[in-house]
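Input/output pair, single chain:
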Amino acid sequence: MERINSVAQTRIIIIIIMIMIMFTPHTTLILPPIFIPFSPATQPTLDQFATHH
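Output:
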């Protein structure tokens, strides 16, 4: 039963990620700051995203 649960959770996570990608064209700009919030390299990306919106 636990294996079935983990597979279902993984599928749900994948579906959520796919939905996020579909509804946000700038997902590639959003993801790096989330995973590397304190990296100075992400600052220009954040500025670009702010100017686009």
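Helices lie at 2-23, 27-35, 42-52. The CA atoms of residues 4 and 10 lie 10 Å apart.
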